[in-house]
Amino acid sequence: MPEIIVCLKQIYDPAQIRIDPSSKRPVTEGAARKISDFDRNALEEALRIKEKHGGKVVALIGGTKDAAKEALAMGADEAFIYQYDEKTDHLGTASILSGFIRTIKYDLILCGEASVDEYSFQTGPRLAQALGIPVLAYARKVELRDSDIIVERELENRYEVSKAGLPALVTVTKDINQPRIPTLLQILGASKKKITEISPVKPEVGAETLDIIAIEMKRKGIMVKSIEELAGVILSEKQRG
Amino acid sequence: MILVFSDDNETALGILGKGREIADSVKSEVGVISFGNGGEDAFFAYGADRIYSIDSQPFADRVVEVISNLNEQYRPEMILIGGTKLGKEVAARIAQRLGAGCVTDCIDFSIEGGHMAFKRLVLGGRFLAALRLLRKPQIATIPPGRFEKKAGKTARGEKIIIPFTPAGSKIQVMEIKKKAPQELNIEEADIIVSVGRGIKNKEDIGLIKSLADTLGGAVGCSRSIAADLKWLPEEHWVGLSGHRVKPRLYIAIGISGQVQHIAGIRDAKTIIAINNDPNAPIFKACDYGIVGDLYEIVPGLIEILKKQV
After folding, report:
1. Which chain A positions have a beta carbon within 8 Å of B127's beta carbon?
2. pLDDT of A241
3. What is the pTM of this model?
4. If you average pLDDT over residues B2-25, what whole number do you get?
5. Are B85 and B121 in contact (CB under 8 A)?
6. For residue B89, what is the nearest residue in chain A, using CA coordinates?
7. Is pLDDT above 70 for A143?
8. Which of A33, B2, B66, B73 is deepest in the core (most CB within 10 A)?
9. Does ipTM come in above 0.90?
10. B253-282, pLDDT tens digit by residue?
């Protein structure tokens, strides 16, 4: 029965991050934290695989106990949390994750294809590379068959159905499923499940953020008065090619 | 040396132009990695000093292997990779293998304090981050279409054939299904007609679809239509947590324009907004806007456009 690890990242909801009026830097204070959207799809997919094949789902979370409780309420069997600071880049994250994963047994690792705050698409492929296991990125369908994973990957102009032997890592897209919302009973039940804090390590980093500054969106903002005028704009924009 | 690779030739040519510029400013050279045959001489015309030619398909495992080996042999300062889906995967894997950092979707470069700063959009595209890569090689992916290709000197450079015997991959491709042109692929769509909470009934999406069909575009929607009301499947959801799109023309109908939605359409070339609320935030984020009832405007548009398109 498959042992599945799901990697989840807790982020500040980017839509709630404010811009400091004088420095133009991001202000996270007051912004809600949440599990990044596609990571939630990864957890949902792991739970569906478990419902079909049995086994165990372990949530590995960069974030707080609140995020762990949410993953457990959705149905994960056990959660491990680790803290990371803002200096941790993708090299650092991959080394924290792979260092821990090497100490436990697993068949399949699921990640979201990217986090919605950064959209870097790095963690899944890096983690697979660090562990020396195959990676199947951008999955919109996943099927476990004996000791193989079969995945339909969405690429620019085609879908690719690929197969790899386990253990393997799969990153999933938003379209793969609709994540479940836990019931009150599940939320209460989750308090009995185990959350373990992974002792902090100071990872190596390969990238340093020098600055983050808000940018102005430059749009024309021209108001038109009639449908005819609007149709004219649409036609000229369409023909511009 | 600056090494350039993309599995998409046009993207490789665009990056070459930028790579040439950087190389000239630091008196370095540009090498390009070419998988498969054909069209290689264009790389010389667009700025390459050297071509590393591999007679193989650019499968991810092979690209990782080849670029890691080239790094071992030539120790490039920088590796710039076309940010296709394959490009993003291999860039991350190569960086991990080499113990290096990597900047995804780098849109600009600048020299700051004697170091190269790599710029990228973060936090819903509302912020520009500047990053420094601390180790060699400095690896970044560049979004397709970001830089224009520039014809350079016509001198033919050096072409080096890289012998390559593929190791057995752990991944077996069983089937490739081409996407049909009319199939919804909102992230690649050229024209998107998108709908929000301004419509009153699920059936009225037919009206939006009819306008999209008239223009040969795809149908998109806001969060509430996909996630809350479920009037359209999530493939249509445009926004930070849905799909980020980059059409030439984006028409937002009855969409108020929450931060989350605007972040998803940041890369649209032209945004047109139709909304009955003159204070809707979408009007601050559009190129052209009209205040009015979508139930009058959309049918009117379809009638006019049908005669013209």
Report:
1. 26, 212-215
2. 60
3. 0.90
4. 94
5. no
6. A125
7. yes
8. B2
9. yes
10. 999 999 889 989 988 999 999 999 999 999
Closest A-chain CA to B242: A174
pLDDT of residue B183: 64
Position B309 scores a pLDDT of: 67
CA distance B198 to B277: 10
The pairing of strands A33-35 and A3-12 is antiparallel
CA distance to partner chain A, nearest, from residue B209 (Å): 16
Return the ∠ at Cα B40 (arms to B34 and B44), rounded to 5°: 105
Q: How far is B48 from chain A (nearest CA, A)?
A: 27
Provide the pairing of β-strand A158-165 with A148-154. Answer: antiparallel
Q: Do A227 and B237 touch (CB under 8 A)?
A: no
Chain A, residues 34-73, CB within 8 A of chain B, namely 37
Enumerate helices (H) and strands (E) in chain B, giving the number of each: 8, 16
Q: Which of B27, B28, B30 is nearest to B3 (CA)?
A: B30
